[in-house]
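Field log, afternoon session.

UNIT: design team B
ACTIVITY: writing a sequence onto a fixed backbone
BACKBONE:
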């Protein structure tokens, strides 16, 4: 899953605040994609970029509201599992298997073409983010988890 910090895309007419409200309306009812925030952190990040909630970004201009890519802070998620290089996948599997007793894990990896770094391995992965994405085909990873845990089924 690729995560992109909370952002809005300009239409050349709407203010950043209006774009946030529109994107939040699109996310209404989602238990996974969180609403974009307009608090102090967002205002601080906008100010650093020369914007405010009243600014009108150019058409197609992406304005980042946060610097982190946490789903809980409104980041977008893109399913990209099928785009990951096989060497990267094999290295991730080896890393997980190197931890005794760990059967299922979420792995955070920074990938830039063929260069990659494993950031952390989570024994309690947040698999739900794969079920509902901002873009890309969602995946029912729960089935893969059960298959990994109980190969005989």
């Amino acid at each position: 899953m690729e995560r992109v910090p909370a952002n809005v895309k300009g239409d050349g007419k709407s203010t950043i605040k209006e774009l946030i409200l529109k994107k939040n309306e699109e996310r209404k009812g989602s238990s996974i994609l969180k609403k974009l925030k307009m608090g102090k952190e967002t205002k601080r990040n906008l100010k650093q970029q020369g914007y405010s909630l009243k600014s009108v970004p150019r058409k197609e201009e992406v304005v980042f509201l946060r610097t982190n890519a946490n789903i809980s802070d409104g980041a977008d998620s893109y399913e990209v599992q099928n785009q990951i290089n096989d060497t990267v996948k094999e290295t991730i599997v080896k890393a997980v298997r190197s931890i005794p007793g760990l059967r299922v894990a979420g792995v955070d990896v920074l990938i830039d073409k063929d260069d990659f770094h494993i950031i952390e391995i989570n024994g309690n992965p947040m698999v739900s983010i794969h079920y509902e994405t901002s873009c890309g085909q969602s995946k029912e990873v729960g089935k893969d988890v059960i298959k990994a845990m109980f190969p005989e089924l």
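LOG NOTE: The chain has four helices and six strands.
NEXT ACTIVITY: expression trials, pending approval
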